[in-house]
């Protein structure tokens, strides 16, 4: 199986702290776009994406995966 990924530098907007997992409400680090559902976008935290990854890939979803950002520190407030 192959996964369609998105180059966020050129085609998509980076997910923000306001983006929340559709399953649990935690910060979302993955966006899956389902072509079979007219471009429906689903947001996932790392945990829930891992739980649903195989089904999303099998459905032909385009995946914007930003899990590499999970350990980034928030900028300090002044």
Structure description:
The chain has one helix and four strands; from the N terminus they run E-E-E-H-E. The protein has a four-stranded mixed sheet. The mean pLDDT is 87. It is of the alpha+beta class. The protein has a domain at 17-69. Strand 2 (30-34) and strand 3 form a beta hairpin.
SSE map:
Blueprint: E1 4-5, E2 30-34, E3 40-44, H1 46-58, E4 62-65
Parallel strand pairs: 1-4
Antiparallel strand pairs: 2-3, 2-4
What spatial form do the alpha-carbon principal axes imply? elongated
Largest β-sheet summary: 4 strands, mixed
Oligomer: single chain
* Total beta strand runs: 4
Strand content: 15-25%
* Mean pLDDT, all residues: 87
**Helical amount:** 10-25%
User: What strand line-up does the widest sheet have?
Assistant: 1-4-2-3
Q: Count of helical segments? A: 1
Low-confidence stretches: none
